[in-house]
Amino acid sequence: MEKLRVELGERSYEVLIDRGNIPLIGERLLRFSIGKKVALISNPKIFELYGEKVTSSLKKEGFDPYVVLIPDGELYKDYFWAYHIITRLLESGFDRKSCLIALGGGVIGDITGFVASIYMRGIPYIQIPTTLLAQVDSSVGGKTAVNHPLGKNMIGSFWQPSLVWIDVDTLDTLPEREFISGLAEVIKYGIIWDNEFFELLDKNKEKILRKEKEILIQIIKRACEIKAEVVSKDERESSLRAILNYGHTIGHAIETLTGYSSYLHGEAISIGMVYEAKLSSILGFLDRESLERIKNILKNFGLPINLPLNMDFSAMIKTILLDKKNIEGKLRMVFPEAIGKMKINFEISEEDLKKVLNE
Ligand SMILES: NC(=O)c1ccc[n+]([C@@H]2O[C@H](COP(=O)([O-])OP(=O)(O)OC[C@H]3O[C@@H](n4cnc5c(N)ncnc54)[C@H](O)[C@@H]3O)[C@@H](O)[C@H]2O)c1
């Protein structure tokens, strides 16, 4: 089992990565001072695949699992379904010692974390992420949220999990497209933090795409280590943590303007990373060779690197200017000045943005 720690003082926790470890979750939970009542939050698809393994492991160790399922999809990561979970917990007598377990991708992880953060002013929760994106990104770092009709992730909190329990075998059932999409976030860590990791990904492309477990464990661990280090230094995103948003300013605009239906998150982020790297190159920071390396690695892993042909650039600029990361109407972005080194909070003019989108 591979292990790392997210260092956040009394809110520190471990991320454990292995294969076939889902049935051991009950035993692990015995180490925590939590009550016997545990709620497993999931969706019908994931519960069907892994729910029984989790609940029987919990029962075996004397826990009393209670299952709450919400429909599958981003559409249900909202206040209504958070309220539904809370109602079910109240009806079933969950108290401040009770613990929640998120079994699923980022949608389940985000809504479960959000409910845990507000239920009786905050109860513990555990992440069992089952998508690559959730394993390398959303399960670590304590950002929780639900969507509002006026914006994605607009209602949320910082609430750290007590444990992140990763079983890479769950990736066997993940649709290929979701897996590739998750790889965009993995590659992001190389670009923002670690050139050696970037090279390791490049060299091991075949093994990764074949989902060989040894390399998967290695890259998930390194991705989580980088995220853990960044989050430990800047939990609430006052500066450094913003580097994790690389690719997301343009990526979110693509997702918004295509109605969240044409691109998976990682696919939109892949395009966003390319255009934000181009921006850095136009501004004279990133050299051409590094820009080509970024484009090539994403393309070679099967990720999109070009904006959709019919993209309305003025709508895109408007959307980017509305991004919640902007401060007082000024557009601020992070982008690489070299592979492994980022520029943070750089003020961008509308002209530069127009230039890069027209490239
Ligand atoms: N909190 C954060 O820091 C953070 C970071 C990045 C993204 N997010 C959020 O994460 C969400 C996206 O997460 P996602 O990409 O994991 O999507 P998701 O949770 O919607 O999962 C994608 C699909 O895969 C299915 N699935 C999950 N695991 C599976 C498995 N092992 N086998 C078969 N099918 C499986 C799901 O049911 C779903 O249909 C977004 O809501 C985004 O806002 C949060």
TrEMBL record:
SUPFAM superfamilies named among the record's database cross-references: Dehydroquinate synthase-like (SSF56796)
Family annotation (InterPro entries): Dehydroquinate_synthase, DHQ_synth_AroB, DHQ_synth_fam, DHQS/DOIS_N, DHQS_C
Pfam families tied to this protein: DHQ_synthase, DHQS_C
Pathway: Metabolic intermediate biosynthesis; chorismate biosynthesis; chorismate from D-erythrose 4-phosphate and phosphoenolpyruvate: step 2/7
Binding annotation for Zn(2+): 185, 248, 265
Keyword flag Manganese: no
Organism of derivation: Thermodesulfovibrio aggregans
Sorted UniProt keywords: Amino-acid biosynthesis, Aromatic amino acid biosynthesis, Cobalt, Cytoplasm, Lyase, Metal-binding, NAD, Nucleotide-binding, Zinc
GO function terms (MF aspect): 3-dehydroquinate synthase activity; metal ion binding; nucleotide binding
Stored HAMAP family: DHQ_synthase
Gene3D superfamilies: 3.40.50.1970, Dehydroquinate synthase-like - alpha domain
Family of the protein in this entry: Belongs to the sugar phosphate cyclases superfamily. Dehydroquinate synthase family.
Residue ranges occupied by any 3-dehydroquinate synthase N-terminal domain in the UniProt entry: 68-180
Keyword NAD applies: yes
Lineage: Bacteria, Pseudomonadati, Nitrospirota, Thermodesulfovibrionia, Thermodesulfovibrionales
Protein residues bound to NAD(+): 72-77, 106-110, 130-131, 143, 152, 170-173
Name the record gives this protein: 3-dehydroquinate synthase
